Amino acid sequence: MFSVIMSGIINEGKEKVGIVTEQEKNAIENLHERINSLEELILSLDNMDILDEKKSYLYKKALIDKNETEFKYNVWWRNMSKKYNWKGTKNDCWEISFKTNEVFLEKVNNNK
Amino acid sequence: METANSIKMGTLPDMWKQMKSNTITFCVTEDCNLRCKYCYMTGKNSKNKMSLNTAKDAVDFILSHKENFTENSVIWEFIGGEPFLEIDLIDKVSDYIKLRMYELNHPWFNSYRFSFSTNGILYGTEAVQNYIKKNKKHISIGISLDGDKIKHDLQRIKKDGTGSYDEVIKNVPLWQKQFPGASTKATFSHEDLPYLSDSIISLWDNGIKIVPANVVFEDVWHEGDDIIFENQLKILADYILENKMWKDYSVRFFDKKIGVPLTEKEKNRNYCGSGNKMIAIGTDGRLFPCIRFYDISLNNKKGIVIGDIYNGINEDLLRPFKALSLASQSSDECLNCKVARGCAWCTGCNYDMADTNTIYERSTAICKMHKANVRATEYFWDKFAKVTGILSPREEFKKERIQQENIDSKYLQFILSDSIMPHCNYRNLKHSNNIMSKEVFEKGLDFANKNGYEIVMLGDTENLMGYNMEEYFAIVSNEKNSKYKNFVNIYDNEVKVTKQVSDNTILLVNRENVNKIFVLVNDICKVSRRVNIILEDIDKWDDKLLYLYEEQLDILLPFVVQSYKNNDPIELNVLTDILYTNSMCNCEAGENSFSLAPNGKIYLCPAFYFDNPNEYIGTLEIGINIKNESLLNLTRAPICSNCDCYHCRRCKFLNKKLTREINTPSKIQCVISHIERNKSKKLQEMLEDNNFIDQDNYIRKINYLDPLDNIMKEKWSDYNV
């Protein structure tokens, strides 16, 4: 099951399947933000005015960091879905609203 | 079915980490490619720009001073002039910020945004678009689009004086595609008020659905501008309602929460982040509480520099900003204004317009405009309810507010007849026998509902058969209550316990019965937990009665302590109330409580009606109009405002009767309150000794019974002729 985060506008009509605590929301939001930050840092490294050696070191470090963070991110979704027993099939996606802590189901034929 | 949550009208766009982030503003340039007429940055120039080295030093300074920036999130804001004139610099600085946050393992790396307010002209350029692609998930960009072309080009002009609308509008579709739901802050000044409704509609037509519009804070307003503003808003209101747009569109002007009185909590808050979670960095690395205190932003004053990125922040210079509250900068008129909520300010603008170099003088230049906004908001939501048939979000908000903030609840007491049993310092000594008619009663109910008053019935009357009186709260003689479910019993100088018993009671005690207070309280406490003693005719008390009263209070002390021992503590207003409050908790007659008499007129309280029916303060038709209203407020009571007899009733009727001034208590009132206070102090010690309470606010020892003696001593102690 894919786990997708939508921090923007949740499309109306999606089925709400659950809600997490504020602490749980903070954890996934933190991971989500970190992944975005690492992606954009990696993207920016090429043009930065720093030594190539440092660039290479930071690139590798950030890449490893990103993989580890993505792992934690998937673990969160797995653990929460087990804890709350959210509705969904193998190919569906879940989304979370960072505003309301609600979790929504995105059916497979809406996947982009 | 529509609910308040599904209606967008009047809401603001969601703000990322609202009030829970630090904002670091880089003024990257003092130049701009426009010369907007209403811009507060009147000192724009092409000379001063931030260098990359200064920007990097600023970043290092910020990241190494966590103690000054304690939030877990940060907004790195780039401003000018026009920030996109320096997109290359911004690009390099942003890269540096990301790098340094990562290297330092700073918590902000997991929670940051880059924010821009731009005039939009350079939005579509390759350099800006490349920047957006690189930082897409961390950017917030607001484009300033003021409305339709006429309105926009009236104010937002290029250096050659021509309008900028055409160049900006062509970038809007791209901006909306890249930032769905983006909003624009349309600003209105004197000249463009006539275009307001068309402007907002134009923005909506262009797909900008949420518009946090505002009027400028500066004193640019002419006579009659408030009426133009109000009329334009009403035209807009009608348009919204005709086209059923309240669900998906919004303009800030119709915020459901504006135009109600402030709560005490709100008065102690500050809604401006300047100098609190915000800091601005000038092109040369000097630090400011926010960009509005920057030199080129001010017309009449010098900028307030609070430090620089090499020598740090002068914390003392930030203290006034951190301590600033709505109350400490506002006049009494503003604090007590019945429509105060939502009346905004800009601390920087206040400073620029103040008589002296202070941030503590709030400008009232937008007073009339705010009131006009409130009138239009009432119009809109009133009509919304009629058009949709559902309770408007504004009415829901008002009801919730009254429930949550009990001290701000407003009450209208219905004096159902002249023969009611008094519940306070009044008696019908004229022996009149007026009874409230059905007509006055119904008009009174309508008035109360329309104006947000909770209804309190005083007494009962056969005249109102057919009305379901059960639903009302009542204060009524314990012998005569047959209808009310929710009531307070009154015992008039004797206790005859009946079946209708309330937990909260009133005990009237005249001079003849002072020596029976303990017995009366004891009898009441067999069936009720709270007794409010009202001492009648105290203007005729002498020293002998004061002595008797003290004796009775002394007998009551162990009685109260015993109730704590029994794990069933009683409340006695004159002894226990002061233990549980640390601010004045007095009669609110004329502030939040009013009385409707059988003659259809409104009074501060029943005492004023029974004393002189000509001393009314309003009617059901015209409403309430109190002259010198501020004299009812504690802040205008020089003796009471410095007193700590928090339980004192501060009876305004007795004040007026005995001293001629509604804000000045008589000596006997003060002496009685202080006797009670001192007995409460004794009670506090007894309860503490027995571990029944554990208090922080100890009643201190004093050596006077009349606080005026103390005030006079202090007032004249240094006086030399």
Task: Give a short synopsis of this structure.
The complex is a heterodimer of chains A (112) and B (721). Chain A is built from two helices and four strands, in the order ββααββ.
Secondary structure: elements and pairs:
The complex is a heterodimer of chains A (112) and B (721).
Chain A: E1 2-3, E2 15-19, H1 22-45, H2 52-84, E3 93-96, E4 102-106
Parallel strand pairs in A: 1-3
Antiparallel strand pairs in A: 2-4, 3-4
Chain B: E1 21-27, H1 52-63, E2 73-79, H2 87-103, E3 112-118, H3 126-134, E4 139-143, H4 149-155, H5 165-169, H6 172-178, E5 187-188, H7 196-205, E6 210-211, E7 214-215, H8 225-242, E8 250-251, H9 264-267, E9 278-281, E10 286-288, E11 307-308, E12 312-313, H10 315-323, H11 326-329, H12 332-335, H13 347-353, H14 367-388, H15 393-404, E13 410-415, H16 438-451, E14 453-458, E15 473-477, E16 486-492, E17 504-509, H17 517-524, E18 530-535, H18 543-565, E19 571-572, H19 573-576, E20 593-596, E21 601-603, H20 606-611, E22 618-619, E23 623-624, H21 652-659, H22 667-689, H23 707-716
Parallel strand pairs in B: 1-2, 1-9, 2-3, 3-4, 5-7, 6-8, 13-14, 13-20, 14-15, 15-16, 16-17, 17-18, 18-19
Antiparallel strand pairs in B: 9-10, 10-11, 11-12, 20-21, 21-22, 22-23
Describe the structure.
Chain A has a four-stranded mixed sheet with strand order 1-3-4-2, with helices on one face. In chain A, 51% of the residues lie in helices and 14% in strands. In chain A, 17% of the residues are buried. Chain A has 112 residues and is α+β, with helices and mostly antiparallel strands. Chain A starts with a strand and ends in a 6-residue tail after the last strand. In chain B, α18 (543-565) links the parallel β18 and β19. In chain B, α1 packs parallel to α2, α7 (196-205) runs parallel beside α8 (225-242) and α8 (225-242) packs parallel to α14. Chain B is α/β, with parallel strands linked by helices. An eleven-stranded mixed sheet of chain B has the order 19-18-17-16-15-14-13-20-21-22-23. Chain B has an eight-stranded mixed sheet with strand order 4-3-2-1-9-10-11-12. Chain B has a two-stranded parallel ribbon with strand order 5-7. Chains A and B meet through α1 of A and α2 of B.
